[in-house]
Structure formats: C-alpha cells, structure tokens
Design a protein that fits this description.
This is P1 family peptidase. This protein is of the alpha+beta class. It has a single domain, classed as L-amino peptidase D-ALA esterase/amidase (4-Layer Sandwich), CATH 3.60.70. The protein is 23% helix and 31% strand. The mean pLDDT is 95.
Length: 321
Amino acid sequence: MKEIKVTDIKGIQIGQAEDENAGTGCTVIICKEGATAGVDVRGGGPATRETDLLNPINMVQQIHAVMLSGGSAFGLDAASGAMQYLEEHDCGFDMQVAHVPIVCGASLFDLSVGDPKVRPDKTMGYQACLNSEQNLFEEGNHGAGTGASVGKVLGFDKAMKSGIGMSGMETGGIQVAAVVAVNACGNVVDYETNEQLAGIYDAATNTIIDAKDAVIAQIEQMAALAQGNTTIGCIVTNAKLDKAQCTKIAGIAHNGYARAIHPVHTMSDGDTIFVLSTGEVEAMPDAIGILATEVMAKAINRAVKAADSAYGLKAYKDIHS
C-alpha cells in the first residue's frame, strides 16, 4: 500500500490557521464540488455543528466542508468563515436567491492553554479557507491541534502536549486518509505495540503513568475525570459511498480512536469523526472501514509525535529522545 496525503484525493483542499500565543486554531477540509458525508459522535461532551443533517434519513446528501477547531463551543464560529468563503466561490446548494454551503464542524476544548478569551472565529475560519488554496497543512502544534493536550485523567497539571496529525493509504485505486486533532482525556499509545507515547506525565521519573490504571485507582473516590478534552477527526475517501455507509464507516473509524487512545469516549470527551466521500471509485464499504481504522490510529500517533512542548507542557519528543 502507498502512503498518501488527504490532498492527494481529487477535489479536496485543506487549510489551517492559528494563534500560537493564544494557543488555539482551526483546520478546514473543503470539497467545493460537494461530498457525501456521515458522522459518529461517541464522546459524552461534544461541541458540534450541522451533525443532525448527516443522519441518513434527512434530505441533504452532500456537504462542502468540515471545520475542526479549538475554542470549545465558542470555536464553532470558525465555520462561519468557511460559509463566507464558499459562498464567495458560488459553492453550495442553489436556492435560486443564494448558494447555501453546508459546513459541518466540531470543536475541542483548549481554553486551559494560552488565552482563554481568544478562540477561533469567523475571521480565523476564513483565513484557514484561504490557506487551503495552497493546501497549507502542518502536523503537531498547528490548526485545531495548536492547543491540544492529552493525559488529563489526574488533572491538567500532569498533561502532555499533543497536536494534529494526518495519515493516508492508497491501494488498488482506493484512497483513504485521516486528519485528527488529538485532545484526549486519556493517554495516547502506539496503536501496534501499546507503548505509552504521551499522557499523564510523572515529572519525578520522566515517565508516563498508565491512564487506565489511574482511572481504576480513583473508583472508590468517585472522582469525575478532568473536564476539557475531545478528539475530533475526519476520514476522507475517493470511494463511492452513500450517507448510511459514510455514517457506518465513521463509527468503524472510532476503532482507530480505541486502538490509540486509552481510555477513550469518556464522559469528559466529545469524540467525533466525520467521513467525506468524493464518490470516484466503486469499493467495498467493509474494506474502507478497515483502512479508515488504520489511518485514523496512525494519524493519532503522528499527532503526538509531531507535537512540540508548549504552554508549560512536555511533549513526546522530550521523553522519547
């Protein structure tokens, strides 16, 4: 299998914008011609936009962009910038009096770093769209991953820096790629070996504490997990899928989350995955689900490995040198 980027898929643009000092940003995935889409929300505390219309029983069959952002619920405003950009390019459903773009989105909580009063907004979202014209994308502390962190089971003071990652595969003409901003309550582990990559940081030993063990140890204390998390991602494929199949594959791709994040889908996370299908190539949905799981898990690993220490948080590079 050949490794690819999401932009190797025909018709897809990706762009990012961020405020490094404030510790937040956004990442947009655009399909101006429209893409069939689905979503699966598994976390207990999601911040999402236009997800109801992705239900297979609803009318809208295609969307034009997915906006991933920091800023918690405030950050959903970044999608307004994508709406403006797409309208300016005559993208969207032609309603005679206006073109109405469909922009879905999800936000993660990064207000604990940088300046909590600065969040992704319409202006930042619009800039990300402009940057997508050159497909400006970097892994690590960029876009929606600018203020991302992991390993908050025992509180933010023991967290480590995370970021955004990308992974993709092509086989037999079928392309599947993942983009994910990793801001989990739990730890990130190597999806193949289970090695702890980033998470609850023990400064005394310069090691990572197993998050599952930490949760179990707190059972008798009835302590709630730390608030302010959420991993948000998007699978993009050139396979021909309908809305129901996109929705199913979004659910299957959560297996990638489960392979790389321990624990995952907690009440303190808003874990969400979108799927975009450009409909170029006939393919077996189950095969797409397998590839989606693989690229999502790998993208999560890449997100933490690419992150740099920031905002007082150690990163993978600091303890795995």
